[in-house]
Amino acid sequence: MAGHPLYVGFLWHMHQPDYRNSVTGEVWLPWIRLHAAKDYLHMPRLAAGFPGLKVTFNLTPVLLSQLEDYAAGRTTDRAEILSLKDPAELTPAEKREILGLFFSIDPDRVIRRYPRYARLYELKPEAEKDPDLFSAAYWRDLQAWFNLAWISPDQVEADPELAALVARGRDFTGDDVRLILAKHREFARQVIAAYRALVEAGQAEISTSPFYHPILPLLIDSRSARRASPNLPLPEPSIAWPEDAFEQLRLAVSFIERIFGQPPAGLWPSEGAVSPETVELAARFENLRWLATDEGILVRSLGTWVERDGDGNAVNPEILCRPYAVRTATGRKLAVFFRDQVLSDRIGFVYRHFSGVDAARDLYGRLKTLRGRLPPDRPFIVTIALDGENCWEGYEDNGNPFLRTLYRLLTEDPELKPVTFSEYLASFEPEIELERLHTGSWIGANLETWVGEPAQNRAWEYLARTRSEFLEVQAASPGMDHELLAGAWRSIYTAEGSDWFWWYYSRHDPGPDNPFDRAFRSHLASVYLLTGRPVPGWLLEPIRREPVRPASRPPVSYVSPPLDAVEPAGHAWSGAGWLEPPLEPTTMRPALVVFRRVIYGYDPTALHIRVETQPPVRDYEFLVLFRLPGRPAARILPDGSSVDWAGIPPGTGFSAVLLVQPARPGVDLYLAGDDGSWQPGDGGVRLGIDRRVAELAVAFDSLGIGLGARLEALFVARRGPFALEVLPAAGLLTMDLRPF
Questions:
Q1: Where in 302-392 does DSSP place strands (E)?
Q2: Among 16, 513, 528, 643, which is most exposed with the fewest C-beta within 10 angstroms?
Q3: Is 547 or 273 the better-scoring residue by pLDDT?
Q4: Residues 210-231: what's their mean pLDDT?
């Protein structure tokens, strides 16, 4: 092989929030225990079977500390209690609780793998109508199967007792359930040792995140969120607790050193959220040499973009496939790796729909394509970073065929070399220093998932009030018991975790009774209880009162807005419909997220469209494509480019195209002819532009339509010939122009 291989850095991120009640110790959700049985042990053991493989596991301390509690028998979760209860003694409320939780695993890949579990699932609707209608055998088998199905198939096959239970399939006993749960504890006891063994074998590196998984840029200064989102509403007063951010990181480094015998060299900031101040903080820890975040942060830091071909492969991968140095105020440099979002998200969201072997071959082929596009004389590295626990239940056989095939292909090919990030840096220093680092996360390259909406800001304000009042008590009570003091701070740090604010985001549905809201408020309440004060009334009411916000809605009344492009959209748009990008990445939801949302509506004579963007609107051009009733359609656009974008139904053509060029500024209308050619429209289109908004008014006459028409639309953001994002991400948007 001539030159360098393409180095491949996997970062498997393992995290769960703190499910322990700060006062009672009750564990209200079972995901730590269940993932220990299915994923946390499975991942290092599977990697150990490929001696040439090197991987990085990002283990959050809040996860590991709960695993330690399970391993030591110090904790029991609510699902365990329900699993162990005699079915004859279950109350109707407990039966409904079981029905709501005990099918919480992928129905197609897991539940239907086991005939009896599948039958229990089919009967669930009837059981919900009348829980007492079913015999004790139904409930006992459900108690067993929920816990049994959460065990990795590898573990089941290797354990004769578990294999026998799966083979029997039904008519389980209380002893069977106790055996399954005992196995869960046994697996939990083996998890940390499995990672430690992989590290000692030189196959793995352990990186970490701040202890309770807070969003560091927000904790340091919540106003930093406005760097990516200038008009974002923020909590009042603003959050500025750099000392808490330091302590969250200090606790994490100390914890990992205790568990693994050495401090971590790498940091995955919670949710990939970074800022210049975050790097300054990390640089205060001498052991930390590198951190990782998202491609979207890189492209905004550089002011450029990663071009991708029609298959999503990077055309200019030399931008992305390398670490960058970030220099701090003290002159110290930290290396920053930026994950390839397309490759990472194919594992996280796309490959579950493939056979495992086909998925592995697809990823391997993409890595080979990258290798072929990179100069061989430089040590390029591609970073693949994602959640390492939640995606596998959607895969064939818990991801085994995919991971085994992928690991084998990588370790057998001299042109691809899996490495840990510290191993890479031991040989190759970053060659390029970033002049600026964008503030944002791996979700949309901003911080809006955790701050800015009413419930999110309310939660931050409740946290700030609790913390402020506790500091007053602490200052007035210098002799306060040390354990109580530590417990109160632990509750505050726990409440600073990202997960609570994630569930307050209106695009996320926490389910009935929002257990995450109750948990967040209980952590704050414990601060009062631990210091002998009554819990204030405002902590007894739910924080989130707004309903789940849908990703789209149709227009509900006429709109005739002025083309002023002001932010935010004013009352004139209140009757319009909207379309927002999906939260989960897709093939056409890339790292360079452009669309914030598209708002659309109409009056009796014109269509009105408002495109809101994340970055400045003048940096891009936009296509608005229409399929019109009874009009010819073309598949080649006026500039000669094709419409063969991922997510578009095969054979789709369009009747009209609006080419919006905010930098000019200008907009051109083209109409398709019978021969597939394009002719300029007769005008009838007006444009308004501001920093992150483009507004259009399109006269119905110019499109040859009127009220009552039904048309389909597609919105495309691009630079040059490259389509950066398509909305909707799959299919077309149907517009019914019904009279109001």
A1: 324-327, 333-339, 381-387
A2: 513
A3: 273
A4: 96
Determine the average pLDDT of the residues in 137-156: 98
Convert the pLDDT of each residue in 352-395 to its tens digit.
Answer: 889 999 999 999 999 999 999 999 999 999 999 999 999 999 99
How far apart are alpha carbons 355 and 365 in whole angstroms?
15
For helices 400-412 and 356-373, the axis angle rounded to 10 degrees is 30
Predicted local confidence at residue 590, as pLDDT: 47
* Neighbour-count burial of 706, counting CB atoms closer than 10 A to its CB (0-12 exposed, 13-18 middle, 19+ buried): exposed
Please state whether the peptide bond connecting residue 153 to the residue before it is cis, i.e. omega within 30 degrees of 0: no
Q: What is the pLDDT of residue 588?
A: 36
Domains and CATH numbers, the chain: 1-20+28-210+240-442 (3.20.110.10), 454-539 (1.20.1430), 558-736 (2.60.40)
Q: What is the 3 state secondary structure string of 585-642?
A: CCCCCCCCCCEEEEEEEECCCEEEEEEEECCCHHHCEEEEEEECCCCCCECECCCCCE
Joined together, the tokens standing for residue 441 give: 């996360």
Q: What residue type is assigned to position 350 of the chain?
A: V
pLDDT one-digit tens code per residue, 491-502: 999 999 999 999
- What is the greatest pairwise CA distance in the chain? 87
Neighbours of 488 (CB within 10 A): 23
- CA 35 from centroid of its chain's CA atoms: 18
What CA–CA distances, in Å, run from 269 to 59, 239, 347, 538? 11, 18, 21, 31
pLDDT of 441 above 80: yes
| Cβ partners under 8 Å of residue 34, min gap 6 | 147, 150, 184
C-alpha span between 91 and 97 (Å, rounded): 10
Structure tokens that stand for 648 in this block: 């578009």
Using 50, 70 and 90 to split pLDDT, how confident is the model at 1?
low
Would the CA dihedral through 332, 316, 295, 595 be positive or negative? positive
- Cβ atoms of residues 387 and 100 within 8 Å: no
Q: Judge whether residue 646 has pLDDT over 70.
A: no
pTM, whole model, 2 decimals? 0.85
3-state SS, residue 207: strand
Distances (CA, A) of 147 to 2, 157, 184, 373: 51, 16, 8, 47
User: Is the separation of the CB atoms in 611 and 715 below 8 Å?
Assistant: yes
Three state DSSP letters for 258-292: HHHCCCCCEECCHHHCECHHHHHHHCCCCCCCEEE
Confidence of residue 602 (pLDDT cuts 50, 70, 90): very high
